[in-house]
Amino acid sequence: MIHRPHVDWFALAPVNALLLATAVALLCAVLVPRARRQEIAATFCALGYAAAFGFAVTLYVRSAHGQGVVADAIRRDRLAELATMIVAGSGLLATAISYRERARNDHVGEYYSLLAAAGAGMAFFVAANNLMTLFLALEWFSICLYILCAIDRDRLGGLEAALKYLVVGGFGSAVLLFGSALVYGSSGRLNFAGIAAAGAQHDALLVFGLAMIVAGFGFKASAAPFHMWTPDVYEGAPTPVTAFMSAATKTVALVAALRILTTAFPANAHLWTVALAVIAVCSLVIGNFAALVQRTVKRMLAYSSISHAGFMLMAVAADSALGARALLYYLIPYAATSLGAFAVVAARERELGVPVTYENMAGFGWERPLLGISMWAFMLGFAGFPLTGGFVGKFYVFAAAYRHGWTWLVIIGVLATLVSLYYYLGLVRAMFMRRTEDLQLAPIGGSPPRDALLQTAVLTCLVVTVGSFFAVQPLIDLAKHASNALPL
Would you say residue 143 lies in a domain? Predict the structure, then answer.
């Protein structure tokens, strides 16, 4: 008789909801008439993400004490559920942003199917409890994102971005896989707690494997010096896909890195904390200084993403409960700010039909007040100004690094924030303080196309960006309960 492990189906409910949405959206591609294909596929994708969000909230409430499920291959705990909530919220907003995207509708059913499948892989990834499920989930959502970048065959930039993402992402996955193999060869264990208990922390094989795992997560989190794919992919991919990647991929990469490093390698903390601090400094320096010379808004936001990876890695490098809470709080306003900023870029792209630059954003704040004011708030949130969640997030990250004894890292973070003011406020200046006539731009004519779903998504992101500043205590409590799942 074959022994079958007990399966906690409720723990898999968010993943299964998104997989069901994936299947239905894919069926829409062949069974639904072309005229209604996008409407129905987008509806089921949104319903899948909404259901996944609801299941994640319920699981968060009912998982005060984390436990392993499916033969301990994944964890049912509040850390995984909080990350799943961020992913599901990001996916729901990305679906709304995508609805009016200018593209051929040959593969619109497949687009929403892949968008839901990527979210399912990410929800599985953050719950992974051993090296095998970690890698399988990583490939699951990565392959979906590779295809999403190239799904519009008319965009040569998208095809180029997808190829670069495939090559560099595949290399990053291979590095993580080889590092996992070295760790398994040294410890003889796959599950994270077993690796920590194996007592092989001084083995050279394990240390080399740990270094490769850190590098693999650096690729996925778009942290320097593993960032080379980020600017080109962010610029070339369809803007709604870029929005989803910037929020969700970074979230799951950092949460999974936090879990594996603190659970599987606590005895090697003296090594990986220093390594992450160095990567954080590289990300802050390269991201901010490279963003200074960008004229395309999407590339500027790409380098901004690299910079924010540095801030978040400071929290992971602190290796403390405060650092874990800082990271989990930071991810909430950051995801909203990233999605909102790329949504505004998508709106401007649809108006002009050309890439969005600082120059053609001139006067945008007066033409589209809701989107202009929202973009202003998003830039202030990225910069860490008060009245946005970015201010509290950076404050907590700096507090965690300072308590760890890394005052020098805090100083570098503050200087990097000051440098970032130039390009964030430069975009605000272009929108509000430069008249279109000054640049002698040709008038477009007519009113901008109405896009209620995109504007709703932007408004939702604005509410989260600003609301996270005023609702600090509930969100910190949320992050605190989630971080209790870790052995910190």
Answer: yes
Neighbours of 107 (CB within 10 A): 17
* Contact status, residue 422 vs residue 292, Cβ threshold 8 Å: yes
Q: 428-444 burial string, b = 16+ CB within 10 Å, else e?
A: bebbbebebeeeeeeee
- If pLDDT is split at 50, 70 and 90, which confidence band does 32 have? confident
What is the C-alpha to C-alpha distance for residues 411 and 415, in angstroms, rounded to an integer? 6
**Looking at the 3D structure of the chain, how many domains does it have?**
1
Would you state the pLDDT for residue 161? Answer: 84
DSSP 298-316: HHHHHHHHHHHHHHHHHHH
3-state DSSP assignment of residue 74: strand
Give the DSSP letter string of 183-216. HHHHHS--BHHHHHHT--TT-HHHHHHHHHHHHH
Decide if 266 is inside a domain: yes
Stated pTM of the model: 0.94
Single out the residue of 417, 422, 423 nearest to residue 388, CA to CA.
417
Q: Which residue has the tokens 């040709």?
A: 442
CB 308 within 8 A of CB 382: yes
Residue 160 pLDDT class (50, 70, 90 cuts): confident
Phi-psi bin for 224: left (phi > 0), alpha (psi -120 to 50), beta? beta
The model's pLDDT over 459-471, given as tens digits with 9 standing for 90+, comes to: 999 999 999 999 9
Which uninterrupted H or E stretch holds 461? helix 452-470
Q: Flag whether 357 is in a domain.
A: yes
What is the per-residue pLDDT across 428-475, written as a single tens digit (0 to 9) for each? 998 887 655 555 444 444 455 677 899 999 999 999 999 999 999 999
